[in-house]
Amino acid sequence: MRIITGTAKGIRLKAPRGLDVRPTGDRVKESMFNILANLKASTNSEVIYGARVLDLFAGTGNLGLEALSRGAHYALFVDRSQVSLAVIKDNIHSARLNALAEVRRGDSLKTLDSLAEAAQTFRLIFIDPPYNEGLVNAALLKLDMTSIVEPGGVIVVEHSKHEPVNTDWKYLQSIRTEHYGETFVTFLMR
Asked: What domains are there in the chain, each with its CATH number?
């Protein structure tokens, strides 16, 4: 697992041992970021460059770090595992992106509540929770009910084929779903 392009291109990222963390593979990540780059053409606004990024259930920080390397302005990494947070901090340091990153320990769903209370907004949000635990749609419900996602902002959800993303939201619109074997990636826009 590595950073694919940008200022930290080629930096190898660490991952915690065991099956608790399921890092996004390079092939899926590259496809994900190619789609995000093409969204700029369809929306006339840059999705990544200059963005505030939220990486929920961050695991290794892989997705948020890729966004920072590609020109995002700031990334908040949220995970409840102390082991994951230590790995994320090491990966941020290895990529030399310390000045642009913040790491927060906590439950991702509860963190969404505190971000909403603090009126924090993000243009790009990654959601990659443990599969099949009901966390995908719970997180999307909180994002739909608050103004955490900037207007025109994008949410990228990595999920299992056994846990489909709801499509009936008040403010969020599903714009694309791709699948890579057992992994599905759904893009939503506010």
From this structure: 26-189 (3.40.50.150)
